[in-house]
Design brief:
This protein has 2 domains: 108 residues, Macroglobulin (MG2) domain (Immunoglobulin-like, Sandwich), CATH 2.60.40.1930; 119 residues, Immunoglobulin-like, CATH 2.60.40. The strands form 3 sheets. Strands 10, 11, 12, 13, 14 and 15 form a 6-stranded mixed beta sheet that branches. It has a 5-stranded mixed beta sheet with strand order 3-9-8-5-6. It is α+β, with helices and mostly antiparallel strands. About 6% of the residues have low confidence. The protein is elongated, with a radius of gyration of 31 Å. It is built from 3 helices and 15 strands.
């Protein structure tokens, strides 16, 4: 009898486990097939037409933009669903604007939302576009709004595509040796090999600095446009502030600015 009871007990446990295996996925499957799968994509753009065509897709906007648009792709949104689109100011933890929609029938397709500009400019900072269905967050996309000056600075940071210190360069400024950050005191010449792209008549300036004395001992300036390469030379005999043709040992830096904004700084040492 004991053996039979054990067999029944084991069979009962296995039966319960089998039932759980069947039931649990069915519940989780219902959740996954619900609001979480209704939103299939979110696109942020400078504009979205009534036909659902997004122009100027981006996640970086200006405080001067006339509006910010979202194009939402929906799949099997049930009729009478309470849908809310929120433009959430993450930096200030507040909803700046929201709009609510309630479809009369089941809907699959694209939906447009807009964050309109009021009399004042947008507030700069970090944002989220949020989608709620029946007060449940089912989708979001982060973006940032910046001032024109911040956007210009971001652009300047991308203009200088490469900068390295070398001992040899070609006539066009292409490195002729491996970049390094340690040089010997008797190094004849040190060059900063510069590559740039997408420049728009930007004023390039390079300052060679002897860090122990915070001394700027040479400045190089030129206007750059378009794409290209060039070298910023530093000659021991001509540019050293010492009366001998060798460098003072210690730490140095090369500060690179575009239109007075610091975009790069290369640190090196002479031993």
């Amino acid at each position: 009898m004991e053996n039979k009871n054990k067999i029944f007990l084991v069979a009962g446990i296995l039966g319960v486990l089998l039932l759980l295996v069947i039931i649990i996925p069915s519940f989780t499957g219902k959740n996954k097939g619900g609001t979480e799968q209704i939103v299939t994509s979110i696109i942020l753009a400078k504009s979205v037409s009534e036909a659902g065509v997004a122009t100027g897709q981006t996640d970086i906007f200006s405080t001067e933009d006339p509006g910010i648009y979202a194009l939402v792709s929906l799949n099997a949104l049930p009729a009478k669903s309470n849908v809310e689109y929120q433009w959430y100011y993450a930096s200030g933890r507040s909803v700046q604007y929201s709009e609510k929609k309630k479809p009369e029938k089941d809907y699959t397709g694209k939906s447009r939302a807009v964050f309109p500009k009021t009399e004042k400019s947008f507030i700069s900072g970090d944002y989220e576009f949020r989608i709620l269905i029946s007060n449940q967050l089912v989708g979001k996309k982060s973006f940032v709004i910046k001032t024109p000056n911040e956007l210009k600075k971001d652009y300047r940071l991308t203009v200088i595509t490469d900068a390295q210190l070398v001992e040899k360069v070609s006539l066009s400024g292409v490195p002729g040796s491996i970049g390094k950050d340690v040089f010997a005191a008797d190094t004849a010449n040190i060059y900063a090999a510069i590559s740039f792209s997408g420049a728009s008549s930007n004023v390039f300036e390079a300052q060679w600095v002897y860090l122990p004395e915070n001394k700027i001992f040479k400045t190089y300036k030129k206007t750059i446009t378009g794409n290209g390469t060039f070298a910023v030379p530093l000659e021991a005999k001509k540019d050293s502030w010492l009366p001998v043709a060798s460098w003072a040992k210690g730490k140095y830096s090369l500060k690179i600015t575009l239109d007075d904004d610091l975009v790069r700084e290369l640190f090196f040492e002479i031993q």
